[in-house]
């Protein structure tokens, strides 16, 4: 997509099922705007590889060294999923310079961002190349909503981050067992109310959503790599019953576990 003020070279939504690396050792020639939606990855920032989790927005400008690595470390969340756009243009320059833009920032996303991003991707994929006016309007709306999401994201303190990491570790260790909020909170030494709030702010989803993502990721691995029955997989991964596993799996992936396993 190309207009007088915005040029989009690539945009999309991608689920990485294999290890992936994107390296611009000599520096970018475009802006990269990337939102982590699921799973985890790593990116080079100020000489260090930094973990990127759902809710993290990456913002890199032309000339920046860019090194994105996906799948080099196993994540209990499963595959990495992200929205991205690579772009240039006068309007993009002006928008970028409106504020300081750290390379990684946590945002507050109420769903509007991902919806706009999906529409931008669909319009860009049209056989006729998409409407330049619609594409530019969607892109500008995305950028302005990103600014709002950055402004509305609460600042996290180092203490909150420590509590969040303690709870995250506990959930990962106990995902296949019954998880109670009071136990997760107690592990971090904070109240249940505080635990629920801190976890959501730090990682972009609730404690139970995180446990569910881990269980689904484990279930996918067992379905792909073992001959276990679906009932056994439901039990092994902490869902308890096949009925519950079936409902959660279908809600997440749009197909039943049985149909997923029968795919070619």
Briefly say what this structure is.
InterPro entries: AraC-bd (IPR003313), Homeodomain-like_sf (IPR009057), HTH-like (IPR037923), HTH_AraC (IPR018060), HTH_AraC-typ_CS (IPR018062), Tscrpt_reg_AraC-type_HTH (IPR020449). The protein is 46% helix and 21% strand.
Low-confidence stretches: none
Number of H/I helices: 10
Count all strands and give the number. 9
Give the H and E element order. EEEEEEEEHEHHHHHHHHH
Secondary structural class: alpha+beta
Overall average residue pLDDT: 89
Q: What is the alpha-carbon Rg in Å?
A: 20 Å
Q: End-to-end distance, in Å?
A: 35 Å
Sheet with the most strands: spatial strand order: 1-8-3-6-9
Q: Sheet with the most strands?
A: 5 strands, antiparallel
Strand content: 15-25%
Would you kindly provide a written description of the structure presented here, covering whatever features stand out?
The protein contains ten helices and nine strands. With 264 residues, it is of the alpha+beta class. The strands form two sheets. The chain has a five-stranded antiparallel beta sheet with strand order 1-8-3-6-9. A four-stranded antiparallel beta sheet has the order 2-7-4-5, with no helix packed on it. It is globular, with a radius of gyration of 20 Å. The two termini are 35 Å apart. The model has no long low-confidence stretch (mean pLDDT 89).
């Amino acid at each position: 997509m190309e207009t007088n003020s915005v040029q989009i070279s690539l945009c999309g939504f991608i689920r990485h099922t294999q290890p992936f690396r994107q390296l611009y050792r000599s520096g970018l020639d475009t802006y990269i705007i990337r939102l982590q939606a699921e799973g985890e990855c790593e990116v080079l920032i100020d000489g260090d590889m930094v973990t990127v989790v759902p809710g993290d927005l990456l913002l890199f400008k032309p000339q920046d060294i860019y090194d994105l690595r996906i799948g080099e470390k196993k994540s209990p969340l499963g595959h990495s999923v992200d929205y991205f756009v690579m772009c240039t243009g006068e309007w993009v320059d002006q928008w970028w310079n409106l504020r300081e833009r750290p390379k990684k920032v946590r945002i507050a996303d109420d769903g509007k961002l991902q919806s706009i991003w999906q529409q931008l991707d669909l319009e860009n994929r049209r056989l006729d190349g998409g409407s330049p006016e619609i594409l530019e309007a969607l892109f500008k709306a995305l950028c302005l909503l990103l600014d709002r999401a950055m402004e509305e994201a609460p600042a996290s303190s180092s203490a909150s981050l420590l509590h969040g990491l303690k709870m995250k570790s506990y959930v990962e260790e106990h995902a296949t067992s019954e998880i109670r909020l009071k136990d997760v909170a107690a592990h971090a030494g904070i109240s249940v109310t505080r635990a629920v709030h801190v976890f959501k702010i730090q990682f972009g989803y609730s404690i139970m959503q995180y446990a569910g993502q881990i269980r689904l990721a484990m279930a996918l691995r067992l379905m792909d790599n073992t001959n276990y029955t679906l009932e056994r997989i439901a039990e092994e991964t902490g869902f308890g019953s096949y009925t519950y596993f079936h409902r959660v799996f279908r809600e997440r992936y749009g197909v039943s576990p049985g149909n997923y396993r029968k795919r070619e």
